[in-house]
Design a protein that fits this description.
The protein is α/β, with parallel strands linked by helices. The chain has 19 helices and 27 strands. Strands 11-10-12-13-9-16-17-18-19-20 form a ten-stranded mixed β-sheet, sandwiched between helices. It has a six-stranded antiparallel β-sheet with strand order 4-3-2-7-6-5, with helices on one face. The protein has a four-stranded parallel β-sheet with strand order 22-21-23-24. Strand 5 and strand 6 form a beta hairpin. Keywords: ATP-binding, Nucleotide-binding. GO terms for molecular function: ATP binding; nucleic acid binding.
C-alpha cells in the first residue's frame, strides 16, 4: 500500500513547541490526531495509545494562533488546509468562541480496497459501515479513484465537509479523475445529491456520512434512477441500521405485518411480525470491524430478512495480511443449533459438497479402509473381497462412524413441527435426550412432524414436502405420549414395554410429591395388574390436573381410562386393552 499524508502541512499550524515535539517523535508516521483543549495539556493520539505533548496547559492565544493558519470553519464546525486531506474540527463555548480543536490527520492510502475490489467492479451500490476512525473515508476516496481512473466511469463525489477531496477549490490528486461537488451547508447535502444526478450525468455517486432521513431518501431516489451509489454511515453492523428509524430505509425499511393463521403456524411465530418494507437502497454492505478485517454482506436483502426472522446471517469475513494477500472466510452462525445449541465459527470458502441421504439422493457409501489393499495375482477378485469383509471390523474405527437416521440422514435429525406444541416437543427431546433438533426452516428439515387434522386441510404443506422429498409423520394430538411415540417412530426407536423414571418426568407439571405419587400409582397399576392380569383398576381420588397427567400416562401404554365419580372423590379407572 502507498500512503501520502502531507503531515508537515498539518504540523505547521500547531504551536512551535508542539510542532518540534511531533517532528522528532518516533511514531510520527502513525499519528491519528492532535487534541488542543483550553486549560488542558495538549494530547497526541496514535492508533492504540495517546500521550501528552507538553506539561503546560493550552492557552487561548495558542488556539487563536492555530485558527488563523487554517481555512474558514463551516456550518459543521470543520475546516481544512488547502490541497490536503487534514481536518480541523472546532469545539465552541455557548457564545460561539472556539475553545478546543481536534486536528485530524488525513491520509490517502492507495490499495486499501483490494479486499473488496471484485464487489466494486460489479456495479452494485455499496454501503460502508464502521465506527469513527476505522477508515471509512479513506476507503471511500480510494473507491472513487479506482472507479474513475481504472474502470473509466463518470464519478461525482458529494463532499460535504471537504474531507474526501481536501480543502480548497482544487481537489486532492488522491481522487483521480473523479469530480467533486462541495456543499455550502451540511443540511443541504441531500439537495446537492439530487443536483449531481440531474446536472452532471454521473454513473457513480460517492457520499460520505449519510446521517439524516432526507439524505437516506435522496440516496433511494438516486439508486432508483440506475446510478451506482457508494456511501458510508455510522454504525458497526447492519443491525444498528435496522434499529435506527432515521437510516433504516438504507436497508429497505421495516414494517409490521399481520400473518394469516396458517402462515404464522408454519413459521412458528406470532401473527404480527416485522418484515422488510422495500428493496434496500444499497445491495451490498461492508462492516469495517478493523482496518484489515471487513465483513461483507453480498445481499443486504437476504441479511435483513434473516435478522428479522430471529436468525443470524453467515456473511463473508475478508482479511488481508502484511504481504497484501486477501483471505476470504465464511462466518457460520448455527441457530436452533446443528448441535443443539447456538454457536458460531468460520469456514474457508471452498465449494461445499452435499452430504447425507437427502442431499445426494442415495445411501452414504462406507468410508474407505484404513489399510492398503493388496492385489495378489494368485487370488480371484472374489477371494480378495471375502478377505476384506472378514477383516473389515479390525480396520474400521467405530468411534469415527457418524450415526445415521432411519433414511441415512446425518444425526441429529432436523424436525420441522407443524401444529405441534413446540414447548412439549422441546421437553420430550430434552428429557429423553433424543438426537433431534427443531428447525423453523422447512428447507433445512429432514422430516415434518404434524397433526393429522392439520395435514388433511393443508394441501400446500403436502406439496412443499413432496417437492423437497421430506417425509411427513403424523400424530393424532399434541400430547406428550403422541409426541414421544412420533419422535421414536421418526428415529426407528422401539417403544419400551414399561416406562422408566425419565419418561415419568415427561408427564409431571410442577414436579410436586403429590404428582409423583399419582404417576407412580398409575404406573404400578398398569404394569402389575392391568397388563399382566387383564383386570381393570380404580385409582385413588385426585385433582383434575393430576388426573389429566394420569390419563396421559395411561395413553402412553396404549390403554384406555375414564374419570368417574363426583368431586372431590373423582378418580381414574384404567381398562385392559
Amino acid at each position: 500500500m502507498t500512503i501520502t499524508d502531507d503531515l508537515q502541512k498539518l504540523l505547521e499550524i500547531l504551536p512551535q513547541d508542539l510542532r518540534q515535539e511531533l517532528e522528532n517523535h518516533p511514531r510520527r508516521d502513525s499519528l491519528v490526531e492532535v487534541v488542543l483543549d483550553l486549560g488542558r495539556r495538549p494530547e497526541a493520539r496514535f492508533p492504540h495509545a495517546a500521550e501528552y505533548l507538553s506539561e503546560q496547559p493550552v492557552t487561548q492565544a495558542q488556539i487563536d494562533d492555530c485558527i488563523q493558519r487554517v481555512g474558514t470553519f463551516g456550518g459543521d464546525n470543520r475546516a481544512g488546509i488547502e490541497q490536503t486531506l487534514h481536518r480541523i474540527s472546532a469545539i465552541r463555548n455557548r457564545t460561539g468562541k472556539i475553545i478546543g480543536l481536534t486536528c485530524r490527520v488525513g491520509r490517502a492510502v492507495f490499495g486499501t480496497i483490494g479486499m473488496i475490489r471484485d464487489l466494486v467492479e460489479t456495479g452494485k451500490s455499496i454501503l460502508m459501515l464502521g465506527r469513527p476512525g476505522v477508515g471509512k473515508t479513506t476507503a471511500l476516496r480510494e473507491i472513487a479513484r479506482v472507479l474513475a481512473d481504472e474502470l473509466h466511469k463518470r464519478v461525482v463525489i458529494i463532499d460535504t465537509s471537504n474531507e474526501i477531496a481536501g480543502d480548497g477549490d482544487i481537489a486532492h490528486p488522491a481522487i483521480g479523475r473523479a469530480r467533486r461537488m462541495q456543499v455550502a451547508q451540511p443540511e443541504l447535502q441531500h439537495q446537492v445529491m439530487i443536483e449531481a444526478v440531474e446536472n452532471h450525468m454521473p454513473e457513480v455517486i460517492v457520499i460520505d456520512e449519510i446521517g439524516t432521513e432526507l439524505e437516506a431518501l435522496a440516496a433511494r431516489t438516486i439508486a432508483e434512477r440506475g446510478v451506482q451509489l457508494v456511501g458510508t454511515a455510522h454504525g458497526n453492523q447492519i443491525e444498528n441500521l435496522i434499529k435506527n428509524p432515521t437510516l433504516s430505509d438504507l436497508v429497505g425499511g421495516i414494517q409490521a405485518v399481520t400473518l394469516g393463521d396458517d402462515e404464522a403456524r408454519r413459521r412458528g411465530s406470532q401473527k404480527t411480525v416485522l418484515e422488510r418494507k422495500a428493496p434496500p437502497t444499497f445491495e451490498i454492505a461492508v462492516e469495517m470491524l478493523e482496518r484489515q478485517r471487513w465483513v461483507v454482506h453480498e445481499s443486504v436483502a437476504d441479511t435483513v430478512d434473516t435478522l428479522l426472522r430471529g436468525r443470524q446471517p453467515n456473511p463473508q469475513t475478508r482479511t488481508v495480511d502484511e504481504s497484501g494477500k486477501v483471505a476470504v472466510t465464511r462466518q457460520l452462525a448455527v441457530v436452533n443449533g446443528r448441535n443443539g445449541h447456538f454457536s458460531s465459527g468460520e469456514e474457508s470458502l471452498s465449494p461445499a459438497k452435499p452430504v447425507g441421504w437427502r442431499a445426494s439422493g442415495q445411501m452414504l457409501a462406507l468410508p474407505p479402509l484404513g489399510v492398503e489393499r493388496e492385489r495378489l495375482s494368485s487370488r480371484s477378485e472374489f477371494d480378495r473381497l471375502l478377505d476384506e469383509s472378514f477383516n473389515y471390523s479390525d480396520s474400521f474405527d467405530l468411534a469415527e462412524i457418524q450415526p445415521a437416521g432411519p433414511n441415512g440422514e446425518d444425526l441429529p435429525l432436523h424436525v420441522y413441527p407443524y401444529g405441534v406444541s413446540r414447548h412439549q416437543l422441546e421437553q420430550v427431546v430434552s428429557v429423553l435426550t433424543l438426537p433431534v433438533v427443531l428447525t423453523k426452516d422447512i428447507d433445512n428439515a429432514d422430516a415434518i412432524l404434524a397433526l393429522r387434522s392439520h395435514v388433511k386441510n393443508h394441501a400446500k404443506l403436502r406439496q412443499m414436502a413432496k417437492a423437497r422429498h421430506i417425509p411427513i409423520h403424523m400424530i393424532k394430538s399434541s400430547t406428550i405420549p403422541q409426541i414421544t411415540r412420533g419422535l421414536r417412530r421418526l428415529l426407528n426407536i422401539d417403544d419400551p414395554e414399561f416406562a422408566d423414571d425419565k419418561e415419568l418426568q415427561l408427564f409431571l407439571h410442577n414436579g410436586s410429591d403429590d404428582e409423583m405419587d399419582a404417576l407412580e400409582e398409575a404406573r404400578l397399576a398398569v404394569e402389575q395388574i392391568v397388563i399382566p392380569k387383564g383386570q381393570p383398576v380404580e385409582l385413588l381420588p385426585r385433582s383434575a390436573q393430576v388426573r389429566k397427567m394420569q390419563h396421559e400416562l395411561v395413553e402412553h401404554y396404549r390403554l384406555k381410562s375414564h374419570s368417574f365419580g363426583e368431586e372431590p372423590n373423582r378418580r381414574l379407572r384404567i381398562y385392559p386393552a
